[in-house]
Amino acid sequence: MGLALELVAGGNPFDAATRALQVTLLWRGRPVANHQITVISEDGETVRRHRVMTDATGRASIALVSGRSYLLNAVRLEPADKPPVVWQSHWASLTFAAARG
To answer: Which terminus of the chain, N or C, has less C-beta within 10 A?
Structure first.
């Protein structure tokens, strides 16, 4: 989409055969290595939260559980260039529901 920070799905979470979703984190179109992605999922009764790290190529694998809804989130902080603001943040999110199957 051309956003500064993006999470790009490398597969189809709506396909019941998809057991893990590969995602790539991009900063200004380039892969971001060794960066945290927070994974929050829920099934209407329980909420689970964990973190994964991107690899050297900016990719991470998200294990999927059938019927759960997911929010993937990554944040990048960097010094601001206009005082009195000290930091600026960029956020990337991806939401979907894993196929029931």
So the answer is: N
